[in-house]
Amino acid sequence: MIPYGQRVTPDRQATSRSLMRPRPVGRAARIILSGMLALWFALPLVPLLLWSVANRWSFPAPLPTEWGFDGLGTALAQGGVEAFGRSLLLSLAVAAIATPLGAMAARALAVGSVPAPRLVSGILLAPLALPAFVAVMGLTVVLLRLRVPAIVGVLLLLVAAALPYTVYTMRVTYAAHDLAFEEEARTLGASRLQVLWRVHLPLVAPGLARAAFLSFLVGWSDYVITVLVGGGTIVTLPFLVGSFAAGVGNDAIVAVLSLSAIVPPLLLLLALGRFGRRYAGGTRTPSASPLARSEKGFL
């Protein structure tokens, strides 16, 4: 029995834990939904996996009638490794150029240092509104008259195609970015380079990682720009897949090349997920925050 006038203070920690504890029904629903989504994305890969190890698969057999690795051998003999490496280098170059350009453009738009920001934003997002082949057909003539090398032209157009994704991603990042951290670091005696390297970049690192991943996907999955601007001289992995898919009886080769195309984006996505968890875990304590680290170095 509680005496009259005595206040009852519940255990806030126990109350918050009970409120945050997932309910069994909600947890089961999330598990089922996650499993259904994983099945939805993994189901299209089953025919590719079967075709990649099938030398023959005749209708109406439910499984390959002859197993083997002829598709893998043919893909390697037809330049699959070279096309894979060429696509990888091209995609990394697109990400390395489009990510900092998008970040600088997004920061300028966020701080309001750009005249006519709506017009500039519309120009930067224009590649998303125009069909790719329409823009490329017009720019190909210009690049040919300027005698721009094919690989340079492909790289420039892929960077232009990736800029809308990097700008939009970094604008969302800078919308939640607090400039007070940088201003406080400057008051502590930090130079502009120190603020950029030790305060600014750690705070926007997750956004930069997402922008780099999207720009990498633009360069990795492109087919139209490479074919029209490259003129068949730049053989990338999507170009090779399209060439074999246009023929008859190349299902095993197409399956092997398609499966190899999934590997780099998947590995990059897993690496970014691990980076995000490490970043979130590293900034939980005040001593591990970028500003706290900067204060130790500046003072």
UniProtKB/TrEMBL annotation:
Pfam families: BPD_transp_1. InterPro entries: MetI-like, MetI-like_sf. Residues 1-21 are annotated as: Disordered. It is a multi-pass membrane protein. One of its GO terms (cellular component) is plasma membrane. It is found in: Cell inner membrane; Cell membrane. Keywords: Cell inner membrane, Cell membrane, Membrane, Transmembrane, Transmembrane helix, Transport. GO terms for biological process: transmembrane transport. The chain crosses the membrane at residues 31-54, 88-110, 122-144, 150-168, 223-246, 252-272. Its main location: membrane. SUPFAM superfamilies: MetI-like. Residues 84-272 form the ABC transmembrane type-1 domain. Belongs to the binding-protein-dependent transport system permease family. This is ABC transporter permease subunit. The lineage of its organism: Bacteria, Bacillati, Actinomycetota, Actinomycetes, Micrococcales.
